[in-house]
Amino acid sequence: MFKKTSTTSGYRDPEVLVGLDLGTSKITVVVAERDGPAGEAQIIGMGQAPSHGIRKGMIVHLDQAARAVRQAVGDAENMVGLELSEVTVSFSGGEVRSVRSKGMISLGRSPRAVKQLDIARVIEAAQADVSVPANQMILHTIPVEYSLDGNSGIDDPLGMNGMRLDIDLESVIVPSATVQNVYNCVENAGLSVTGFVIKPLASALGALTPEESVAGAVSVDIGGGTCGVAVFADGRPKHLAVVPVGGDHITNDVASVLKIPINKAEEIKKEVDLFSPETLEHTEKLEFDHNGRNYSYSLSELTEIVQCRVEELFTVLVKKEVGASGVSMLPAGLVITGGGSRSIGIDQYLSRVMDMPVRAALPIDSNRMPPGRNGPEYTCASGIIKYALEQERDPFRYMEQSLDLLKGQSRGSAAQSGSRDYDAGSQEPARREGSIFQSIKDVFKELF
Predict the structure, then answer these.
(1) Which of 61, 96, 110, 195 is within CB 3.0–4.6 Å of 53 for a Cys-Cys bond?
(2) Alpha carbon distance 180, 182 (integer Å)
(3) How many CB atoms lie within 10 A of CB 391?
(4) Under DSSP, is residue 244 helix (H, G, I), strand (E, B) or coil?
(5) Strands 58-59, 293-298: parallel, antiparallel or unpaired by DSSP?
(6) 431 Cβ contact partners less than 8 Å away, ≥ 6 residues apart
(7) Which one-letter DSSP state was computed for residue 208?
(8) Rounded to an integer, what distance in angstroms lies between the CA atom of residue 2 and that of residue 85?
(9) What is the pLDDT of residue 410?
(10) What are the residues whose beta carbons fall under 8 Å from the beta carbon of 313, sequence distance 6 or more?
(11) pLDDT above 90 as % of the chain
(12) What pLDDT sits at residue 401?
């Protein structure tokens, strides 16, 4: 988050929040402002640039990705008339695992009120049971549910009385090298990273209504290189995952099987209804010319290719993640967003395939976003702002790993080669595990 303070004595400009969404197809910067720390944020501008140096959500060329970030930031700065320096970053890519653990502490022999320190202690107790490989790290620590004296379903135990406090905790584990490369990319672009948020979480916060997140829903962000899956219930994320299949895979299938150019396959995929039951029965040939060559294909053949890939994505990969969440009832159904949700008729098709209600979602704040930049592909960007606000209001809702270790590795790599990938294998497990506890201590320094 970037805070701009006027140099004029006695006057403070509105606070500015900035989010950076690193996507496979494009990079987006969202800027919001609010009056005072407790005010609601209003999105005032968005910048974007074609994504380079990123493949399937992973940074594959640091310098190219950094240049694309600078371009997107410049676009946003031109729109809002401010110089941006600090960002909260959303990213995906690599293996993302959600691990559940439980912790318990005693509050004493007689009931007493739960304090902030007690919440930190029970989180630490649950975190101690999480095994993290040396080349991975915990990105998010998310309390799923608290229990007091065996009474479950408590959202916030602070101030409540009891003798024993239990917690059900979710830890989001990602490869250390992925996070370090994202950090280095943003720093090389001339920005400071104030926090990270995994894409599925940001997209869900940007797409789900409060009623959907409480009732139970699956949010799927269909991006270019990956799909972010988030299962929500009781207003909290129960499971987060990144599926390594996205809209680009469908486009590549169409281009490969029909032997047509990729850009034309993408255009056809967006403009033709490929999901209605009647389309499979259409046998007429469709033709077009491209670079002096005539192409001909059957609409039914095209439909079969797309539907098979989408059905596999949702009935196999997404369904697997939903099962891993342990949530059996999802009355709000499936909420799809991202660029892939623009396909005509995909919501009705998925409703038949998944046998549940399906909603193609725009960002919740789409009516307050710039025209032309308020479609479903901007849901994740708007969700970054919501994430930053929720994290401020409740420091224990979404806890992040300390950035100190990343800063040290960034300085070390810059001294050696400037753009060399971070060697995750050299990270010591004891330092990595301790950083989440350091984050908790830092929270208390801010509170008191």
Answers:
(1) 61
(2) 5
(3) 18
(4) coil
(5) unpaired
(6) 405
(7) -
(8) 6
(9) 61
(10) 227, 243, 245
(11) 62
(12) 77
On whether the 209-360 domain is CATH 3.30.420.40, my answer is: yes
Distance CA 46, CA 336 (A): 22
φ, ψ dihedrals at 137, nearest 5°? -150, 160
The rounded distance, in Å, linking the Cα atoms of 195 and 19 is 10
Residue in this structure with the two tokens 């469709």, named with its chain if needed: 286
Question: What tokens does 55 get?
Answer: 């493949």
* CB contact set of 151 (below 8 Å; sequence gap of 6+): none
pLDDT for 5 equals 34
Q: At what angle do helices 247-258 and 262-271 cross, to 10 degrees?
A: 110
Confidence bin at 433 (pLDDT 50/70/90): very low
What's the CA dihedral at 405, 419, 70, 89 to 10 degrees? -30
* Torsion (CA) 187, 25, 386, 230 in degrees, nearest 10: -120
Least confident window among 3-17, 204-218, 250-264: 3-17
Q: How far apart are CA 260 and CA 199, in angstroms?
A: 32
Domain boundaries, the chain: 209-360
d(CA 17, CA 33): 6
